[in-house]
From TrEMBL:
InterPro entries: Aromatic_deC, PyrdxlP-dep_de-COase, PyrdxlP-dep_Trfase, PyrdxlP-dep_Trfase_major, PyrdxlP-dep_Trfase_small, Pyridoxal-P_BS. It comes from Dinoponera quadriceps (South American ant). Belongs to the group II decarboxylase family. The modification N6-(pyridoxal phosphate)lysine is found at K303. Keywords: Catecholamine biosynthesis, Decarboxylase, Lyase, Pyridoxal phosphate. Its cofactor is pyridoxal 5'-phosphate. This is Aromatic-L-amino-acid decarboxylase. Homodimer. It comes from the Eukaryota. Its EC number is 4.1.1.28.
Length: 480
């Protein structure tokens, strides 16, 4: 493809994308295809001779779109949002053009330096304690991971390296496998599965702790678990506090957990994957009270801050343990000024890394903090609008406090009834929701996801839910 062809292709694609976004409401949010739908639509082998880019454009509607779940439709309310915006799309184009692999400073200085500065900008936007920021001149700093799952694993491996070193100093006769066998980590039973999975990757025990009636992990529960485990000869080394659980968007008591973790010399990691974006609004920062007690903090601008996947922001107060845990320094990666800027390959699992900070830079500049705040506040306001609608109908109940853009609700009645309701809603395909469970109680989650979401969309979704509830309840009364 030559430059002129590229310009035409890119222009046509920009046209297609804007059309797609402007009319996304008109598409059925859930596809109707069956597994294997694509095979008959494509040749079984790659073409021997080049095709025209126009042939590809023609195939997007024929091959791809029938199998797309439209995550950016205002009718999509499943999971948590995944971010998307024009500035981030354009930044990804530039990243694709520069196509550097920024594993060390010298591998592309701009890639590292913009990331350091963007993580400082972002850290200041959520009022992180200065110990986390590179600009404070201390050890701390930020890094862009691919996902929150990677951040939990990186923090766990850093914590493991730190504890190994400490225990070795006290018990030089103990072998590494002996110490690792005693290590134990903690999180709430409502933490994301990736947190527990990090324990599997790290080869350590993980204990899932019970939560209070508001689904929060409390300090006294953590303290008791640590005490019990120490009495058994185990070595507590890592705890994760979740701010905004996937199950119901509950917030662990970071302030209480932090006191315990610091007292017991246990690494405290904070997973605020979804809700962390809300802390750019000062009125929500009470939910991150105790952040100064954490060792590492993570949230995903790629969920709720208009930066396309993947962009998971992580800060470490003292990255030394992570750096040492991952430090393998072959000759071909050495360079003269090594040590004066971060070599991000030591802060992450893979070696390779894209120029992801460009999309953060573009989004922060082209929206400005004030519009990002408006965006968060609008989603939260819409969640409250939906909550109010649910509360007007005595057949329904709200099952968790609505603090962010997620509403957990159900029909009063059995789990079976609510499962039938969800099946009917998703079967109709006009809106898309996923379920969740707390203490064996099945409920539906309505998450405000789209950057196009307006009050009229919330009204539409509520009408659709009521319609399907009428059908299910009618069916139930007929079968009785
Ligand atoms: C609280 C929480 N933690 C972690 C994750 C995993 O995020 P990622 O896909 O970035 O690994 C999620 C995903 O929704 C989440 O809600």
């Amino acid at each position: 493809m030559d430059s002129d062809n590229f310009k035409d292709f890119a222009k046509e694609m920009a046209e297609y994308i804007t059309n797609y976004m402007q009319n996304i409401r008109d598409r059925r949010v859930l596809p109707t295809v069956e597994p294997g739908y694509m095979k008959p639509l494509l040749p079984s082998e790659a073409p021997q001779s080049p095709e025209e880019w126009k042939d590809i454009m023609a195939d997007i509607e024929r091959v791809i779109m029938p199998g797309v779940t439209h995550w950016h439709s205002p009718k999509f309310h499943a999971y948590f949002p995944t971010a998307q915006s024009y500035p981030a799309i354009v930044a990804d184009m530039l990243s694709g053009a520069i196509a550097c692999v920024g594993f060390s400073w010298i591998a592309s200085p701009a890639c590292t330096e913009l990331e350091v500065i963007m993580l400082d900008w972002l850290g200041k936007m959520i009022d992180l304690p200065k110990e986390f920021l590179a600009c404070s001149g201390g050890k701390g700093g930020g890094v862009i991971q691919g996902t929150a799952s990677e951040a939990s694993l990186v923090a766990l491996l850093g914590a493991k390296a730190k504890k190994l070193k400490q225990v070795k100093e006290q018990h030089p006769e103990w072998t590494n496998p002996e110490i690792i066998d005693k290590l134990i980590a903690y999180c709430s039973c409502q933490a994301h599965s990736s947190v527990e999975r990090a324990g599997l990757f790290g080869g350590v025990k993980f204990r899932l702790l019970p939560v209070d009636e508001k689904c929060k992990l409390r300090g006294d529960v953590l303290a008791k678990a640590i005490q019990e485990d120490k009495e058994k000869g185990l070595i507590p080394f890592y705890v994760v506090a979740t701010l905004g659980t996937t199950v119901s968007c509950a917030f662990d008591r970071l302030d209480e957990m932090g006191v315990v973790a610091n007292r017991e010399d246990v690494w405290l990691h904070v997973d605020a994957a979804y809700a962390g974006s809300a802390f750019i609004c000062p009125e929500y920062r009470y939910l991150m009270k105790g952040i100064e007690l954490a060792d590492s903090y993570n949230f995903n601008p790629h969920k709720w801050m208009l930066v396309n996947f993947d962009c998971s922001a992580m800060w470490l107060k003292d990255p030394t343990y992570v750096i040492n845990a991952f430090n393998v320094d072959p000759l071909y990666l050495k360079y003269d000024t090594q040590g004066s800027a971060p070599d991000y390959r030591h802060w992450q699992i893979p070696l390779g890394r894209r120029f992801r900070s460009l999309k953060l830079w573009f989004v922060l500049r082209l929206y400005g903090i004030e519009n990002l705040q408006k965006y968060i506040r609008k989603h939260i306001a819409q969640a409250h609008e939906f909550e109010a609608m649910v509360l007007t109908d005595p057949r329904f109940e709200i099952v968790a406090e609505v603090l962010m853009g997620l509403v957990c609700f159900r029909l009063k009645g059995s789990n079976d009834l609510n499962e039938a309701l969800l099946k009917r809603i998703n079967g109709a395909g006009n809106i898309h929701l996923v379920p969740s469970k707390i203490n064996d109680m099945f409920f539906l989650r309505l998450s405000i996801c789209s950057r196009y979401s307006e009050s009229k969309d919330i009204e539409y979704s509520w009408k659709e839910i009521k319609l399907r509830a009428n059908e299910v309840l009618e069916e139930q009364s007929v079968s009785k």
